[in-house]
Amino acid sequence: MARVRTAVFVSGSGSNLQALIDAAENPDYPAQIALVVSNKKEAYALERARNANIPVTVIENEQEAQLAMQEHNIELICLAGFMKILSADFVNAWSMKILNIHPSLLPAHRGLHAQQQALDDGVKFSGCTVHFVTPEMDAGPIIVQAIVPVLPEDTSEILAKRILVQEHKCYPLALKLVAADKVSVAKDAVKIQQPHLMDGFMMNPVD
Ligand code: GRF
User: Fold this and answer.
1) Rounded Cα–Cα distance for residues 4 and 22 (Å)
2) Gap between the Cα atoms of 62 and 201, Å rounded
């Protein structure tokens, strides 16, 4: 089986990149992490890529990114803590081929400081979302979400850590579904073939 050649775009610590690298170590995983792209040369994520023998490239602009995609025959892009907004031109050239992970239950709490936004709004649940990237920020079709309770003593750092644990499960699953061609988009909503669906409900606080 030809694995889908995937580039991961990073700017920071790269814990989501690591989750994708670890998942792709399984030869049955349908995507291969073929390139890591960073706009920050000091990003720790680059260290993770080098440790896994994955080629890295540091870019200064989108033109360089586009060239790197061609050079490495990239078919899918995962944004994982990439702190630069991609232009509509770039996104449209890769329509439904770019995934992003965001630390909230979209469409709530788009943009920066999503965990603090959740605390400020007093929601009892937050979580994370993997979605396709469209020109409007954090607004594309949703592929996978996980929910995480918000607890009374939470700071944004504590909540971020609890959400990250779920991010590391959601992103490998979302990439697997997309790379295996199990995902289609109709009227801005994602449909997944043969999903294992969650049943029931969760309450926070518990009675
Ligand atoms: C994650 O919280 C992700 O949702 C957001 O940026 C953070 C990246 O963390 N987009 P890491 O670099 O993957 O550790």
Assistant:
1) 16
2) 43
What is the percent of the chain where pLDDT is above 90?
98
CATH of domain 1-84: 3.40.50.170
Domain 1-84 and domain 102-129+138-207 have a common topology: yes
In CATH, the number for domain 102-129+138-207 is 3.40.50.170
- pTM of the prediction? 0.97
| pLDDT at res. 1 | 73
Q: To test the ligand 1 pocket, which listed residue (101, 145, 158) has its Cβ within 8 A of the most ligand atoms?
A: 101
Atom from ligand 1 closest to the CA of residue 13: 12
- Ligand 1 pocket list (CB less than 6 A): 12-16, 80-81, 101-103, 164, 167
Tell me if residue 102 is catalytic. Answer: yes
Tell me the mean pLDDT in the region 78-97.
Answer: 98
Q: SS in 3 state form for 134-149? A: CCCCCCCCEEEEEEEE
Rounded to whole angstroms, the Cα distance separating 76 from 122 reads 36
Domain segments of the chain as ranges: 1-84, 102-129+138-207
Q: Could you tell which of 8, 13, 16, 110 is best to mutate to test the pocket of ligand 1, judged by most ligand atoms within 8 Å of the CB? A: 16
